[in-house]
Amino acid sequence: MANYWNQEIECMSREDMKKLQSERLVAQVKHVYENVPYYRDLMDKKGVTPDDIKSIDDLHKLPFLTKADLRDAYPYGLLAKPLADCTEIHSTSGTTGKRVVAFYTKNDIELWHECCARAIVAVGGTEDDICQIAYGYGLFTGGAGLDGGSHKVGCLTLPMSSGNTERQIQFMMDLKSTILCCTPSYAAYIGETLHEMGYTPDDIHLKAGIFGAEPWTEEMRREIEKSLGIKAYDIYGLTETSGPGVSFECEAQTGMHINEDHFIAEIIDPDTGEVLPEGAKGELVFTSITKEAFPLLRYRTRDICVLTREKCSCGRTLVKMCKPMGRSDDMLIIRGVNVFPSQIETVLIEQGYSPNYMIEVDRVNNTDTMDVYVELTPEQFSDTVKDLQSKEKDLAAAMKTMLGINPKIHLVSPKTIARSEGKAVRVKDNRKLH
Ligand code: DLL
Fold first, then answer.
1. Residue to mutate, 90, 284, 333, 431, ligand 1, most ligand atoms under 8 Å from C-beta
2. Distance (Å) from CA 166 to ligand 1 centroid
3. Which atom in ligand 1 lies closest to the alpha carbon of residue 324?
4. Distance from the CA of 377 to the center of ligand 1, in angstroms?
5. How many whole angstroms separate alpha carbon 109 and alpha carbon 123?
6. Which residues of the chain have pLDDT under 50?
């Protein structure tokens, strides 16, 4: 039996949804053109005016926005409302060099929470539930988004934030939490710790989990479901579009329904920018049609995905996206933190190292690990072991400041890292997530 938060929208006919999206798009393009000079310039350069956009069939005429635009316009260049109308800010986790800062008005927050409420209700959440939120709170959108959704549904909200795993389990048992929200890798770790503490799923009351913010496999889903005795559901989103709740999984567990009344999704060829037909694999692009403060039009997510409109057994008509199948840029997600190899390179150069390095990422006991191998110059190599150890420590600290996570640094002898003859391959990702 399907549960909906907003049945009218979630089960709306295709025709009505297109009409709603068109109306909202037309108004949104006008709002952006009038209030965001940065995007107005992009439209002017492409020779498009708001009058050219009459329905969603005209969406393809609009210019794309990319992460590079966000960087150029940082921090206020894409803001479409006066700061006085904004009530909240969030940002991507730990990425100093490429930080994305998103702004929200009161209404933006309401709509975001509504999207998260839909996700909670879709996994069976009601006001009788106790929702334990173990996503990070703070600048990261995970904690705040699901917290808002949980309040909207009327669940008893347990704002744990991430970390302190034994305490998570203690509260889970004592307070009888029924829904767990966190990253899938943290859910797996909680499951493992539960067993290590000598408990079984029978000792807890969880029935469902809402896990996202990083790629995870069907195998991992089964493992989490078994270790915690729950149904595990996926949730997707990105800071640029508010955060979690752009799409969410239903009882069918076969992909995530996109909240199309707020976000129009397109799939494009990442090389040519051409819009691809339904069912094709390509880069996911979102246009937010209801956001006031930070309304990105045709934002290229870099996530590779497939959309499907096949009838879903839950009764929702919202288009479904598959689990993201990779990225069209080099961003890595390590323990939920977005990391670009270029940031590591920046730190190395700032600290006086050569840009000869190799990043190795793995997942050990469901936790991501990152090892960075850095080549010493011949001068640095003559240092004593003690000096080298202290260098490794300093470098790890500088990386932590830049990335927000602590990689293991290995300083290696000169000329030991393979040189490339074409594009440098800097990353070895052994996690097999796709
Ligand atoms: O990760 C928002 C979020 C919080 C989503 C909590 C779900 C739950 P960012 O830190 O800006 O925002 O990272 C966005 O994470 O472009 C994807 O590459 C990746 N991502 C997010 N959800 C999923 C998912 C949050 N369910 C980037 N599966 C996105 C795979 C995901 N990748």
1. 333
2. 25
3. 30
4. 38
5. 22
6. 94-96
What is the rounded distance in angstroms from the CA atom of residue 198 to the CA atom of residue 21?
52
Residue identified by tokens 């246009």 is: 287
Q: Which helix (H) or strand (E) holds 233?
A: strand 231-238
d(CA 163, CA 165): 5
State how far Cα 215 lies from the chain centre: 9
- C-alpha distances (whole Å) from 241 to each of 7, 68, 236, 422 are 23, 16, 11, 35
Which are the contacts of 48, defined by CB distance < 8 A and separation ≥ 6?
61, 62, 63
Q: What's the pTM?
A: 0.87
CA distances from 125 to 120, 161, 292, 372, 421 (A): 5, 19, 28, 42, 54
CA dihedral angle for residue 304, residue 114, residue 221, residue 140, rounded to 10 degrees = 70
Q: What does the pLDDT read at residue 94?
A: 47
Peptide bond into 75 cis (omega under 30): yes
What is the Å distance from ligand 1's center to 213 Cα?
A: 3
* Helices vs strands, H then E, count in the chain: 12, 19
- Please write the tens of the pLDDT for every residue from 324-365: 988 888 888 898 888 888 788 888 888 888 778 899 999 988
The reply to whether ligand 1 has any atom less than 6 angstroms from the CB of 191 is no
Task: Copy the structure tokens of residue 10.
Answer: 């979630």
Beta partners for residue 180, in sequence order: 132, 209
Nearest of 254, 251, 202 to residue 228 by alpha carbon: 202
Greatest Cα-to-Cα distance within the chain, rounded to the nearest angstrom: 72
Question: Which of 182, 242, 303, 334 has most ligand 1 atoms within 8 Å of CB, for mutation?
Answer: 303
Other C-beta atoms within 10 Å of 227: how many? 20
- Hey, what's the torsion of the CAs at 273, 275, 276, 279, to 10 degrees? 120
pLDDT at residue number 314: 97
